[in-house]
């Protein structure tokens, strides 16, 4: 079983005003210190990943800042990659040793190298490479076609037309936040548009509407903007229009499109490739709703003539691409796929939302995820790469080991659970020795979940529910990385599998059907037996962890309840 060390890496990416910069200038802030915004201390490769590399457009101010927190730092600009790699302080000292620093760099197009200028700061990971692009030159975008109507504030928005014709069936509409919902109708029959509650929509009740969008008229073009994320309901207020003439429609608003900068870090087995790499993001918003973005091609650009051009993904150095994708909020997982044999094998991926596409005050940190490839290999001609944040910020933990109790005592305390949490792409297992988490097919090893003692299941709202050691009910929106105490659960859509009937499963090398769950990618089945936790990726069951007791039922099949 392969075990990888996964790290949670964060970096401040909010554009803020610094010094004498004007409101029109974009600022890229670099937090030039070991202590990050969340209070965590990073060093080595983790710190270097958090700092960069950065890619900015000409005219962007790169602001290096650090605050007093017990360490002094300096800023040094070296002249080439070799001095950068080897921390040779040959170049220009920009800021001398100080416990507080604030330096604005306005750079011409090119590549620049900055390192810590105090003591061993550079060797400890305080270094960043900055690439400045020409005005108008960007990292490869996914181009969106928009309708040129002045009411559209975002260049990523579009017009979604609702054909509001009399007696024409209207399917549900899905649109992005910031899109314009445009109702169009013409003819001899007068119609109107009112936004109503779900209850009134289902009853075709147009009294007490939430909003009168349009009064009755025989033709009109009406734009509806500013709808919040969620479902909205519209009907016509004319008698029998809603009930008999299909004059009603439900509109589902999903989060807006924003630009992300995706940095791919090569691994030792990577090969340079221009094969298409598809990426999806999973995350949660401020209201704890879980979102997954539709798949987006990372390494593809669109020319002025509309043709698509494949771009190389380097095997020699980290490379940054720009994509347009759904705003999933705080990322918790990245899934990528490529053509088998393409040589695409990243070690890490960093996700950074473009600050100018976010609401004012939304200062989001970037996140870096460690990647692994499912051990089962390629599925249906697709090579999958899973990049998941671990439960702890440091290391993976081996499966449970035996305790100091006797074999009979361990058998009497037999308790096992399994849950594949699809939104976070994580798999969780619990025993009397604690709860543990792994990624999709288990190749990334196991991380401990000390906050919980048993699992409840996944709710219809995608939250993960569990029980704490003090019997409190806990909820998690990120697959068990963080927990919040709640008074009740939502409806449980996928309950945790609880192991039972150890005498009826034969050798214990193959789980019973009732003890099997399917992973989020549908590429692996997971199961539990009295011996351990197994995964099936290619038609064969293989152990990913062994329990610390055999659970052979010697104490009367007490395998369906946690004993504490």
Describe the structure.
The protein is mainly beta and 564 residues long. It has 4 domains: 10-135, Immunoglobulin-like (Sandwich), CATH 2.60.40; 159-254, Sandwich (Immunoglobulin-like), CATH 2.60.40.420; 257-389, PLAT/LH2 domain (Lipoxygenase-1); 407-546, no CATH class. Helices cover 5% and strands 40% of the residues. The protein contains 5 helices and 42 strands. The strands form 9 sheets. Strands 1, 18, 19, 20, 21, 24, 25, 26, 27 and 28 form a 10-stranded antiparallel beta sheet that branches. The protein is globular, with a radius of gyration of 27 Å. It starts with 8 loop residues before the first strand and ends in an 18-residue tail after the last strand. It comes from Salpingoeca rosetta (strain ATCC 50818 / BSB-021). GO terms for molecular function: electron transfer activity.
The main sheet comes to: 10 strands, antiparallel
Helix content: under 10%
Taken as a percent bin, the fraction of beta residues is: 35-45%
Outline:
globular
Q: What is the total number of structural domains?
A: 4
Beta strands, count: 42
Radius of gyration: 27 Å
**How many distinct helices?**
5
Uncertain spans, ≥5 residues at pLDDT below 50? Answer: 1-24, 139-153, 390-413, 552-564
Mean pLDDT: 78
What is the structural class?
mainly beta
Span between N and C termini? 31 Å
Signal peptide: 1-18
Domain Phytocyanin: 158-255
GO cellular component, one term: plasma membrane
GO molecular function: electron transfer activity
